[in-house]
Design a protein that fits this description.
heterodimer, A: about 300 residues, 2 domains, 14 helices, B: about 425 residues, alpha/beta, Rossmann fold, Coagulation Factor XIII, Chain A, domain 1, 3 domains, 6-stranded mixed beta sheet, 5-stranded mixed beta sheet, 10 helices, globular
Chain lengths: ~300, ~425
């Protein structure tokens, strides 16, 4: 079976008014033609288009992964070394010198269990927000659903997360941490982390096309966000009455959720979680909307 | 069902001039404006000058039938590439619409998506996916692509270690194997060495013979004439001519777009006025006597020089150097070449015109310059004008072009050969 490019057959074509309109037009060359029209508002996410281009999505992600640790001696080991060295630094400065409480969990484990979802978030955010600008040679030369670019940029964060997860499993075994039933909730918190990162990343990538200020601001914002998230400290250092509001930062729920799923400590209140889910889904949906609204002008302004 | 597979209707595309920050003046712009208004000066705020727009395309309409190869020609900035970008869906039109039936493949450049760190093999898949080919299609064509690119031994070497020629061959090989009902091709033939260009041209010819519809943008008039049946001439975003390829190309070359082909020299003089002789003007005329900046290589041209003698001189000559686009002096000739004895002839004060014919079939296609000089050989320079005029030679059917060979050499004369049989073997 041949996979045709989306603007070739009406079934795969952009599911907007673009195809509908030309049926009544006597100038039209046929109902199976794809019509190119001036700028229009396209609020639909266009999953069908993305599905039709899934091979390109795969190749872009594959390229990013293949090139990431290219020409390095340690190769994929870097995905292990980076969180581990961060863990050592934090353990020394915050745990050992700073005496930050860790809810009774060994500090290295305490920090690593939070660094894992945090790095998933941070890599996804930085990858997606710079993705359009770093792929501008594609945007100005070929057509494909533009959403493919930020989506494919999420691969690196996911793969690094998977590798670091193996280290976490090893650490859990080393510290003889019992497996709790709520460990099954981990994918939920992972999803929350990705959704938040993609939501912000979609906004940032679309705006970064026009204003490169965004690209400069993202690392700084990420750093601030890091300290606003209970990674290096437990949420218990904050008065309990504020916890629900803390949920405005979805990453706070993610990090605390991870610790709860692994150690049963702390935990995420339902109010906090609802706040986080609301913020995260708002970011994601509005991100898709802004992206789709501006994507047609990317090639002209990038 | 009609046979039309591409229809463009009143397509227009507007671009903002300036730094493109029409909607988002930077902080600096705001500050400039604020300071300007504070000072209450008459200066126009910077943002107003940035609000100018141009129409890169204006009311462009055409139809392309199945199997037709349409060439799009025009000078730089005439909107050719913008038109292809709109048809490729990279950028939306500002007005009008276009319809396309069938699978569209666009080659606005070759090698889009190549990553220097990936190997040749990986890049074939990467580039193929970017062009809209499926993995299955690439698998099937893989051998053919590698053979076409002649890179068998370097398949697993990162592309950044390739020579630029190999890089380009690989890129074109993938593009050449793209299966599509409609191909939109922009200037991709302008790269590479002559031999590979010919290979690509013949591949393109195969493409058109397979009944595929092709839109081809090119500066190479010879390849447009070779490949296309119809052509569209764009000038400043508007359609100037549309129809049979020969007519459109004639229109393009007839100089109706630009009437260069003449330079008035006296205005360019620097320093003291010439005491004895001054070069006044140089003109290029085509075979019909029209002043033009584009010459048909198979018809040749005449160079005309006007000069003024202010004081009687003896032994003076007017010389002409022809330079090609690579900065090579192709030939040098003077008005005394033909009758050296006229060296002794005096030139009396007055205005004169000399002309010489540059024969057809000498030139390769491309841009040429003429430098002029007037001197008394061995004594002194009277006047000179380097790169006084430039003109373009367009190959519309020289022998070399007809035989579709990539030949070397800075000139391309048609030379008479003779053949004699020395011995024959009867069977």
């Amino acid at each position: 079976m041949k996979l045709s490019m989306p603007h070739t057959s009406p079934s795969m074509a952009n599911p907007t008014n673009a195809v509908m309109k030309n049926i009544d037009d006597p100038d039209s060359i046929g109902s199976d033609a794809f019509r190119i029209l001036p700028l229009q508002q396209v609020p639909a996410i266009g999953f069908r288009d993305i599905w039709a281009y899934r091979e390109l999505l795969y190749f872009l992600a594959w390229r990013d992964l293949k090139v990431r640790y290219h020409q390095t001696i340690l190769g994929i080991l870097w995905a292990v070394l980076k969180p581990c060295s961060m863990m050592v630094v934090f353990s020394v400065f915050f745990g050992w010198l700073g005496r930050i409480p860790s809810d009774g969990i060994p500090y290295p484990l305490f920090i690593f269990s939070a660094l894992l979802p945090w790095q998933l978030f941070a890599h996804t955010l930085s990858g997606t927000s710079h993705s359009l600008v770093s792929n501008q040679h594609l945007i100005t030369k070929v057509y494909f659903p533009r959403l493919i670019i930020p989506i494919s940029a999420m691969a690196i964060g996911l793969v690094d997360f998977g590798i670091a997860l193996l280290v976490l499993v090893a650490m859990l075994m080393y510290y003889h941490v019992p497996i709790l039933p709520q460990i099954l909730a981990i994918p939920v918190f992972m999803l929350l982390s990705i959704a938040t990162a993609l939501g912000v990343g979609l906004w940032a990538s679309a705006l970064n096309v026009r204003h490169r200020d965004i690209g400069h601001a993202i690392p700084f914002v990420t750093q601030l966000w890091f300290f606003a998230t209970p990674v290096a400290y437990p949420i218990s250092v904050i008065p309990a009455s504020w916890h629900a509001w803390y949920g405005i930062n979805p990453m706070a729920s993610v990090v605390e959720g991870f610790r709860w799923a692994l150690f049963g400590s702390g935990g995420v209140g339902s109010h906090m979680l609802i706040f986080s889910l609301f913020i995260s889904s708002t970011l994601l949906l509005s991100g898709f909307y802004v992206f789709r609204r501006t994507e047609q002008t990317f090639a002209d302004v990038v | 069902m009609s046979d039309v597979v591409i229809r463009a209707k009143n397509i227009g595309k507007q671009y903002a001039l300036g730094d493109g920050q029409r909607w988002c003046p930077s902080v600096q712009t705001h500050m400039r404006n604020a300071i300007a208004s504070y000072r209450d000066t008459e200066e126009t705020p910077a943002s107003e000058t940035e609000n100018k727009v141009i129409w890169a395309l204006n009311k462009v309409s055409f139809d392309v039938r199945r199997g037709e190869v349409l060439g799009i020609i025009g000078r730089n900035g005439s909107g050719k590439s913008t038109l292809l970008k709109i048809l490729s869906r990279i950028t939306p039109p500002t007005t009008g619409w276009a319809e396309l039936v069938g699978r569209v493949g666009s080659l606005l450049e070759v090698g889009t998506g190549f990553h220097p760190d990936l190997t040749g093999r990986d890049n074939i898949y990467m580039n193929g996916a970017v062009l809209g080919m499926t993995t299955r299609e690439i698998d099937k064509q893989f051998g053919a692509i590698v053979t076409f690119a002649e890179i068998e031994t370097f398949l697993d070497t990162p592309v950044k270690r390739y020579s630029s020629g190999m890089h380009m061959r690989l890129a074109f090989a993938v593009a050449a194997h793209l299966k599509a009902d409609i191909l939109l091709v922009d200037e991709v033939l302008a790269v590479g060495d002559a031999a590979f260009q010919q290979k690509c041209l013949s591949k393109m010819d195969d493409v058109s013979r397979e009944g595929r519809t092709v839109l081809l943008v090119s500066h190479n008039i010879a390849s447009i004439l070779n490949l296309c049946s119809t052509a569209l001439l764009l000038d400043h975003g508007e359609v100037l001519a549309y129809g049979g390829v020969r007519n459109v190309v004639d229109h393009y070359l007839s100089g109706s777009i630009s009437v260069h082909g003449e330079t008035l020299l006296h205005s360019q003089h620097e320093g003291p006025p010439r005491q004895e002789l001054s070069l006044e003007a140089i003109r290029i005329r085509d075979s019909h006597g029209r002043v033009t900046g584009s010459i048909d290589a198979i018809r040749g041209c005449t160079v005309e020089v006007d000069y003024a003698v202010h004081r009687e001189i003896r032994g003076g000559q007017i010389s002409l150097e022809l330079w090609n686009g690579e900065g090579v002096c192709v030939l040098c000739t003077t008005d005394l070449d033909y009758c050296p004895e006229s060296k002794s002839t005096a030139r009396l004060p007055g205005l004169y015109r000399v002309s010489c014919r540059l024969e057809p079939t000498w030139f390769r296609a491309g841009r040429y310059w003429i430098s002029l000089g007037a001197s008394i050989p061995g004594l002194r320079t009277l006047d000179e004008a380097s790169h006084a005029i430039s003109f373009e030679v367009v190959d519309t059917g020289s022998i070399e072009h007809k035989l579709a060979q990539g030949r070397r050499g800075i000139i391309a004369p048609t030379i008479k050969w003779s053949a004699t049989s020395l011995s024959t073997v009867s069977t």
